[in-house]
């Protein structure tokens, strides 16, 4: 809550960053600095949680915010939109909206998306942990897990979310 301490902490953690980035922190108004804790949803939470209540469902980053490490967050949100639109269109809402049909469409959407999002999130989580750890042993274990689970480094970019 102390902006001066936040600035000091940021400057200390930015050793090795370009001088311009450090200067930006040094010269900014103290009232602009905030220290917040990121909210993270673990990959396994995606499989275990229900993301629909009645006729309300969660999609996009609200459901699966991932780290930037595999660059798939935006793509996954677009995939969500396409799958959700297709699931809703299959219920032919032009003939009249039925709550049971909407709930079925949302359930189908979640069924299709959960495992795709789980694997994207897990991959991003492991890459982030690999970059974050200082331990060679932990890094080796993460690399071994990734070699087993993600043999193809481009697997995430070859997903087809279906036709509308």
Characteristics:
single chain, about 160 residues, mainly alpha, 7 helices, about 60% helix
Topology diagram in text:
Layout: H1 3-13, H2 19-27, H3 43-48, E1 52-53, E2 56-57, H4 61-64, H5 73-89, H6 99-132, H7 136-149
Antiparallel strand pairs: 1-2
Helix pairs in contact: 5-6, 6-7
N-to-C CA distance: 49 Å
Q: Round the Cα radius of gyration to an integer and report it.
A: 21 Å
Strand order of the largest sheet: 1-2
Mean pLDDT: 86
Q: Would you tell me the structural class of the helices and strands?
A: mainly alpha
* Count of DSSP strands: 2
Q: How would you describe the shape? A: extended
Q: What does this protein structure show overall?
A:
With 164 residues, this protein is mostly helical. Helix content is 58%, strand content 2%. It has helices at residues 3-13, 19-27, 43-48, 61-64, 73-89, 99-132, 136-149, and strands spanning 52-53, 56-57. The chain has a two-stranded antiparallel sheet with strand order 1-2. A hairpin with a 2-residue loop joins strand 1 and strand 2. Helix 5 runs antiparallel to helix 6 and helix 6 (99-132) crosses helix 7. The longest helix has 34 residues, at 99-132. The relative contact order is 0.12.
């Amino acid at each position: 809550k102390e902006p001066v301490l936040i600035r000091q902490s940021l400057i200390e953690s930015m050793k090795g960053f370009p001088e311009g980035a450090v200067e930006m922190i040094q010269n900014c108004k103290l009232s602009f600095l905030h220290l917040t804790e990121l909210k993270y949803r673990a990959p396994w939470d995606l499989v275990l949680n229900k993301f629909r209540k009645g006729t309300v469902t969660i999609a996009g980053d609200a459901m699966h915010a991932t780290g930037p490490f595999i660059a798939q967050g935006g793509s996954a949100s677009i995939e969500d939109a396409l799958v959700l639109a297709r699931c809703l269109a299959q219920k032919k809402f032009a003939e009249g909206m039925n709550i049971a049909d909407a709930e079925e469409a949302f359930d189908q959407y979640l069924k299709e998306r959960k495992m795709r999002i789980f694997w994207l999130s897990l991959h991003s989580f492991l890459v982030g942990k690999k970059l974050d750890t200082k331990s060679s042993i932990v890094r080796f274990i993460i690399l071994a897990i990734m070699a087993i689970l993600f043999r193809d480094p481009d697997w995430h970019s070859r997903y087809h979310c279906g036709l509308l």
